[in-house]
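Re: the request from the purification team.
They wanted to know what the chain is likely to look like in 3D before they choose a buffer screen. I agreed to run a prediction and write the result into the notebook, where they can find it.
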Amino acid sequence: MNQRIGYARVSTDDQQLDLQRDALQQAGCGAIYEETASGKNAVRPELRQCQKALRAGDTLVVWRLDRLGRSLPDLVQIVTDLEQHGVQFESLTEKIETGSAAGKLIFHVFAALAEFERGLIRERTQAGLAAARARGRAGGRKPKLDDQQVREIKVLLRDPDIRVAEVARRYGVSRTTLYKHIDIVSPKT
């Protein structure tokens, strides 16, 4: 008996699977594999379990293409593997199903467009970061120690009786952070 099996994924813990779950249930999926994992993460245990559960004649259903693949090559590889095992693929939002030649063609066109869009987003992000740097704004994490704290720590560590670990605890940072910010000649842990 051919099954419709769903796969749903969100990238972060604060995102919800409800929308995808509802759509997959409405599409007739008897089983739905769900996980929270970044699309960039190659290790997706629920996807692996989902693939193991699929049999020839079954259909893997996702809410949207980007929920399945990390990139165009990854998405194409997954769908190709499915096809080699006699499993069809369906994406609800893009209305793509690989059960027909036309569906396969549409899948490849949409996958290419999705990859193109991600490339544009990446380019715009890089351009925005470059523009911000040109205006003197630096991105990234705020430093754990400010200049005043670094000066204070340097004075404290001149005393041979004060240990690096004590200073690190006092300032709420790790010893590694101290070593990065301060040139400590002989580590006193």
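For the purification team: The chain has a mean pLDDT of 86.
Please add any questions underneath this entry.
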